[in-house]
Amino acid sequence: MVMLEQVTGSERHVSALYRLLNARTHRISAAENVSEPDHRRFVEDHPYRAWWLVLKEGSVIGSVYLGKDNSVGVDLTDEHVRLLPEVVSQVIDKHRPLPAIPSVRRGSFFINVAPGDLQKIDQIRRLGWEKAQETFAASKS
User: Fold this and answer.
1) How far apart are CA 114 and CA 131, in angstroms?
2) d(CA 63, CA 89)
3) SS (H, E, C) 11-28
4) Which whole number is the average pLDDT over 71-92?
5) What does residue 63 show for φ and ψ, rounded to 5 degrees?
6) pLDDT score at 27
7) Assigned CATH for 3-126
8) Helices then strands (H, E): number in the chain?
9) I want to staple 71 with a disulfide (CB 3.0 to 4.6 A). Which of 60, 64, 67, 95 is the partner?
């Protein structure tokens, strides 16, 4: 069983989140090389509706957040991706999506996933969630 610990911006949380960020195999929005000071500012700004470290037997194995847009961001170490359904279920069992705002926010939770992250895609499908869209980003110029 996994436990969720609310992110507070403590030194331990900043360090754990930085290690997780740098260990990611697949990235969606984070730049390849985020500096420690930039990362610290990001954590201290706490841009999410709610944010937790994911713990298994006292060790940090990932993080999960709820965005103000009803996104659920899940970052688990590669060897713990199979726990994604348990983590997501814990979060959405305790929280309701924010109301829909046309052209701004959908009225249900959703998860963005890198197209090559087949393990995470498989675990999301195990939750019974459906593919809602494909997103494309402009090439850097």
Assistant:
1) 13
2) 14
3) HHHHHHHHHHHHHCCCCC
4) 95
5) -145, 160
6) 58
7) 3.40.630.30
8) 4, 4
9) 67
